[in-house]
Amino acid sequence: MDKKNKNVPLIRFKGFEEEWEEIRLGDFGDFKSNGVDKTVKEKELPINLLNYMDVYNQRHISVENCNELMQVTATDRQIKENNVVDGDVFFTPSSETPEDIGHVSVIEETLPNTCYSYHLMRYRPKENVFYKIFPKYSFASDYMRKQLVFEAQGVQRFVLSKDSFENLVAKKPSISEQQKIGSFFKELDDLIGAKEEELQKLRQLKSALLDAMFPNGDSENTTGVNRGGGQMLNNIITNYPQLAVRSHSANTPRLRFRGFTAPWEKKKLSTECNFSKGRGYSKSDIQSSGIPLLLYGTMYTDYKTAINGKATLLCPLWPNRICSPWP
Length: 327
Description:
disordered C terminus; extended; alpha+beta; 8 helices
């Protein structure tokens, strides 16, 4: 928002100049929890259940895939009171930390035979308050996130009460501006989704190639790319003509670069390199200058197949402590 006017955004689409309206969410819609439990009981009806993690991960749920949700049972009353319809907004009302509370997801079409879990909070706005997908982005803005974090109550697990949700203050422009904003961010989401799908395919390809381009000690070599059958092999060869399918054995990979046919040597690592254990350091040893220190967490939390030498933490040069210099 513009610092000079707290109800006018810093960047907006051309043609819109009026101030945004501040509203209390409870005055413009109904919040409801007490959803359906994750159980299957006799004499109840089978339903699809929208879960906490579906909302947390912002899983796109539609008429086409709602049958893939968790399958549980519910009473007639629950099915009527806890249904999921076009425009419903769902929040995650609990979390282990305040910063991770209040994730939001918007339903874009009425889902048949579907209810929501008791771990969720449903917000059903009144008609003509929001453009359907606008809350998905507006309620995830920094302005709303600060309120959600501030209102979170708890010690080991933090929760937001129904009253807290009702008292949340949102800023909303006209429906036409909401539509512009919502459509713009949805296009970005679609682009991100396409890139993530492409990235996932590349990861699968890499995993298959790691299996096929390294001997696995099994002459059958039935892992990875081989489980995909001839079609996967044909696709790889088509896209990577520098590779060729070879007769494989325990010491010969299934896929190799052209020109290489000799079997691989099998040796113990101890005959080819030296192993040594690191030295322990405490937090007090970490200083703003010194030599780079490779930490366990550097590899575990930010794993890379090669370390580029840029250490995030530095170790001082103490007289009686030996650190190998960074190559």
